[in-house]
Design goal:
With 292 residues, this protein is α/β, with parallel strands linked by helices. The protein contains 9 helices and 11 strands. The chain folds into 2 domains: 164 residues, Adenylosuccinate Synthetase, Chain A, domain 1, CATH 3.40.440; 95 residues, Adenylosuccinate Synthetase, subunit A, domain 2, CATH 1.10.300.
Length: 292
Amino acid sequence: MPGTAIIGAQWGDEGKGKITHLLAGQSDVVVRYSGGPNAGHTVIHEGTVFKLHQIPSGVLFPHVRCYMGNGMVIDPEEMSREMSQLEDAGAQLSNLFLSGNAHLILPYHRALDKGQETTLGDQAIGTTGRGIGPAYTDKVARRGVRAQDLLLPDAELSEKIQGALDVSNISLEHHLRTGTITLNSVMELMRQWRDRIGPHITDAFTPLHEAIESGARVLFEGAQGTLLDIDHGTYPFVTSSNPTSGGVLTGSGVGPGAINRVMGVAKAFQARVGSGPMPTELDGDAAIRLRG
């Protein structure tokens, strides 16, 4: 059975996490295909509230296999924290898998993101400052560090990081006038993350395709929204990925035949977080009344 894709039809914050959680119980597989910790999917499961930023909303169902796709950028520290919160609540994470091709958000990405936003002043994009844009920049520049690199011996891993770190430190020191990041500090964190999330890193393509071919019910979980798409949104006030339905294919590694239904989630009262145009924005007394 081909899959269902859930996307945001507006500027994000439409309630995609709730819809995904509602449908996840009827699914066999849930895949997050884009974005990173800039998402905030709030779900209520058996009376408990969970706020998921990176881990797929289907993780709360023991029978559902959850994949974090290659189109995501992963903050290992945030992922570790989410995993601990879920485990403390009694969730089983043996069904959680991270694509080895997903790129990692490292400390210098967060430093760059915050520094660049500060430098832009009134022209700031309104990012979350979580390093997502700089991580995608390194990916496109072919100097990114991927999840599978965490499993490399220290010597090989440090060599990969050093190249990207050198470029980032030039910007941090000479353009943004902030402190630089040391390789030793990054490697210390990488060793911790290797122990924590390493067991979940895998080839996500093969089992996902096998599930589709076997007729499994697959749900693709989006983040952000259509109007924040890097190509089709209100550029430059957009996210750094493709949260539209086309992003499902590249972000999870499936073909168009894998999807037979796309669900766009919208809310009656639109809202936009961060900077950028909002043509239908209200102000004055009406806006105050609507916002409560």
